[in-house]
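Backbone shape codes
____________________
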Amino acid sequence: MNTHLPSHLVVGNTISWTTSDGSVSSPRQPPHVGPIPVLDGQGTSRHMEEILPGTERYQSWLAIVGTVVAREMLGTTKNDGPYYMVDFPEGYSLYYRFTKYPQASGSKPRRDQYLWGAKNIVFRSPNEFTPHALWLMKGARADDPCQCIYCTDRVKPSQIDINKEFKLPGIRSHRDKHHYK
């Protein structure tokens, strides 16, 4: 196995973090956390609720990220089964944002998920977070910059390009996005 991680960070199919860029002393939180919605001037209500460890959505994020980290850093394959991150990096938390639009708008209520923790960054999916996670697992070095869509200095890649580069689930072709067959 082509390991780039100290062996004490991998126990079975669970991987611990090498570092974090989240703040432990004052973790970032989204606005409007709690069960009471906040109404805006257009009649749209929003509120955020933390997604707790052990829930299906929480575990799904840890599995998607962990499996890619294992493949990229340990050389695992699909036959090795899923890998899981032990948790999110210190100072990170996963939230649902519930949005309810005025009835007249005809829009359906939404439940989106966001990972908060990194300074000035909110990740909307495990795929968005995975390149950042790989950078953290490599030590978050300044001489090896993060390649996520929020941190990179190169021309901003689309998430589709990142999905393809890191072999992430989801859309991997711009043609797929537009439903060409």
Notes: The longest strand covers residues 93-100. The radius of gyration is 18 Å.
